[in-house]
Design a protein that fits this description.
This protein is of the alpha/beta class. The chain folds into two domains: about 20-120 and about 235-310, Vaccinia Virus protein VP39 (Rossmann fold); about 125-230, Orthogonal Bundle (DNA polymerase, domain 1). Helices cover about 45% and strands about 15% of the residues. It contains 13 helices and seven strands. The chain has helices spanning about 20-30, 45-55, 65-80, 95-100, 120, 150-155, 155-170, 175-185, 190-205, 220-230, 230-245, 260-275, 290-295; strands at about 35-40, 60-65, 85-90, 105-115, 245-255, 280, 305-310. Helix 3 (about 65-80) links the parallel strand 2 (about 60-65) and strand 3. The two termini are about 40 Å apart.
Amino acid sequence: MVEHEHNNAPVGPVLHRPAMVAEVLRVLAPAPGEVALDLTVGTGGHSVALARALGPDGLLVGIDADPRALEVARCRLAGEAACRFELHAGRFGQVPATVARTGASAFDCVLADLGVGTHQLDDPARGFAFESDARLDMRFDPSAGPSAWEVVNSLPEEGLADVFYRLGEERHSRAIASAVCRRRRERPIDTPAELSDLVKGVVARRTPRRHTWRIHPATRVMMALRIYVNREMEELDALLDALPGLLRSGGRAAVLTYHSLEARRVKQAWRRQAQDGLLTLLTRSPLRPTEQEQAENPRVRSAQLRAARKL
């Protein structure tokens, strides 16, 4: 499900439905006049909620790797933000340099939602969705780095197997990589639909008939490709290292994760930083979406929200 479009948004865009908005606002507790940083603006869902809480004397700084989403967010915030705002294109690893160009030196609230946006998944031209007949892409910024098409059709078999296993925790990684290489010797694998069908066939041959799939059998492979193409783990590590330096004393940070690789990194980094006296944890156990939200928006079912405060 997605949010309804607003009058100030361009006609036709898919708007991402933000996860756990009430919980995010509760742990970040943005107050009038404060300065907030949304590191994953997307199409503006969380940013609008933060901006309303900051009020006319507040400042919202937004960053996102997806330039198309930023344009949508800019239009929405122009019509709905109750505070001043500025938006910048950039990746997590560029955050310190990007922040240096803004009107803020430190922040009271910092948010990072690591989920893939509805505006990306539901736009068939972006090459994320399993059933898409568009060219495999999966880049948040379509102008940056190799696409998923280049990776699938050029990475050696051993490298593909490593990507599928290490970043997707796919137990059939070697068999899938072998099948991919056999297929591409005949012709390139051009679309997400072709790749997901190939993966489904491999998994089906290796899975007992009585087994029922809880998720699409290509889910882990497609996730691994997206993570690899966008260097998501490297970018997240860079952000977690920089995060304490972005917060002013008493500032709060919140991170939404959607799979174990992300969650593990956040948990371990914040545990180290708490031991070093940089942060204190606000959530001993991660918060999860309510049953009602999961029913209304199934894509948030795996979401986990963690929060910390700078000492």
